[in-house]
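Slide 14.
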Amino acid sequence: MPKIKLHWQIVIALVLAVIAGSITGTDMGAGGFTFYNAYEFVGTLFLNALKMLIVPLIASSIVIGIAGMSGHHALGRMGGKTILYYATTSLIAILIGLTVVNIMTPGIVDGQPAKDMIGLSSDVEDIKSKVEGKSAGDVAEVFLRMVPTNIVFAAANGQMLGLIFFSLLFGFFMTKIEHPGAETIYNFWDAVYNIMMLITDWVMKFAPIGVFALVAKVVASTGFDAFKPLAMFFVSVVFALAVHFFVVMPLLLKFLGRVNPLRHYRAMAPALLTAFSTSSSSATLPLTIECVEKNAGVSNRTSSFVLPLGATINMDGTALYECVAAMFIAQAYGLDLGFAEQFTIVMVALLTSIGVAGIPAASLVAISIILTTIGLPIEGIGLILAVDRILDMCRTTVNVFSDSCGAVIIGKSEGEENILKA
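Slide 15: predicted structure.
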């Protein structure tokens, strides 16, 4: 009997999870045992297993990737391409979100601001006075975490930007020491990387079970009623994400990467389905690397640099969501934001998305920064919580796909010939 491919196993698990979660809810069970608790336990166990891989995999992949580059110029060239790609795609995503939210105006219901319908209590006039004249302010602190005072503490607390920066330095200067020592340390990190990939393969055998538990838990706790009062906001975000995912990214793959976008969708299917179920680009990173290297054919030299960096600073879906959410809250209060305020939202969304941790709901912190920057009350976040989890799953999928597209495009620009060959 032929074995079912991993991405189809995950799809089946997603369908079964929706059915099981809607049937069991949060209370079904017996003797103090509930299915919801079982979902939570298994889902948390799977997420913990994925997160366990993150630090050693990121460190080893970056060190090996940087050490394998032929000198400073190769690193600088690839780094420049990577940063340019990530900044461009994030900006495009934000502008798509801004366009959609201005056209669909989800915060306006039947010609009236949705403030009273969704329970916002702050005084509108007071808010208007705060919004006027606001600028992006000081967001430089987002970048301070790039240079941690304690790399072990940074790694233990999920501060991936600091870990990436240290690993870049370590890999670069590893090539500057005498040959015998350099070879020994390179062999060590190469072995660590290969071991981590084997562990990743093993963990991913349990992915359908973990996905089932994670999605069933969400459906059991939220059901489908939460979407009704926020339907237009939900539709606006999903539509904007779909435009970026199904239109912008394939065009970039076609014209910049010169590859078949459909092949890349197939290559990344397991990683995308895992990203959707876990809502964590960091937790999905081990599988993203595996899919990009084994299925898409990108070299480790490229993927080990582009993907870990992307999982930390390239958050297209998150940046788009932050922009739409801030605009939605402003519309709900009846505020007509001008060009200056909307430009501020775009810039702050772009900057804060860089420092957002690749974990579920981390974007809520970034949204609070945007709201504070333009003078909107933090309580506005409360009205989007009902649908945030599902939207988090969607935007994480976009984040991961954009990272993988970046690896393909940059790999092709570096002259790699075996990417997405039939």
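Speaker note: The two ends are 25 Å apart (CA to CA).
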